[in-house]
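Batch manifest line 343
LIGAND: zinc ion
JOB: complex structure
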Amino acid sequence: MKAIVLEEPNNILFKDIESMNLIDSTSVLVRPRVVGICGTDYHAYKGQQPFINYPLVIGHELGVEVLEVGSDVHHLAPGDACAVEPYIGCKEQDGNLCFSCRRGHTNHCTRLQVLGVHIDGGLCEQFVVPSSKLHRSAKLDYEQLALIETLAIGYHAVKRSGISKNDVVLVVGAGPIGLSVIQSVNLIGTSVLVLDVNDKRLQFAKEHFGVNNTYVNPDTIAKEMRSLLSGAMPTIVFDATGNTKSMESSFDYVASGGKIILVGFNRESIVFDDEQFHRNELSLIASRNALSDDFTDLIKLMEDGIIDTSHWISDRANWNSLVKTLPIWCDSTDLIKGVVEIT
Ligand SMILES: [Zn+2]
Ligand SMILES: [Zn+2]
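JOB STATUS: finished
ARTIFACT:
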């Protein structure tokens, strides 16, 4: 079968690989229909993604059609449209649960294998996935289903924050992860401010995500927010940049008693002033991936029309052109979300 393979950094190929068949009675053979591409894929292409073993079939944001189900799978049938939760944990590997999985925290399983990151993903004609990782919808189309993983990252982070309507939120970074945070904050009705150095992204957030107050200059934002908030500061800051300097700056943007949620990440150390941290009794929280329930919740919210995803996709590529398009998307500053239709 055909697949899109990252052979090594900066080398993406359209290639014939061995077809997959049903492995066991609880697995499902699926045909990917729409695949979203994100920063993880761009970093993998550029060789900046630390966990990648090349060659790799990328693709972890997946809207798939069920082709065949194992004999013990009764909740799915051929033709069903599903989103894929691409986090393969202990339960799906050998059933020996790690500490995180035993506590239900499958999003940070110590043996986590993410489809399209640690193991081959969905940019191929068909692949096998554990039935528990498929989230069916009778209403959503394949593009909507391919967006759910991105939305789940923000949804999970917002749940981690323990947000309430009276909070004031600052989201740093208005790329897809920042937008997914904003979309979930909007569900609570909390006021949200956004900082990004790219003004086009801020305009997009204003136009399509109901954001009123945006800031483009990290050097002046603290003063500007104080003036807007009558001397106060945001009570929750989400960092969706993964940029060390930006993460460190979050400590200067948050109110006394406030929370900082790091959604973006990198491999470097972040340094903060403990006196400031303690004096203000701040909370620092990491958010990683998402849980199965986050996928279920989002499908319902989208099916009920509470979450509107109609503005999300800025660029589309077809299956045959992706090897040329992906390197261009990698360097685009205007792109919000690119998706590939597999035909
Ligand atoms: Zn992604
Ligand atoms: Zn585990």
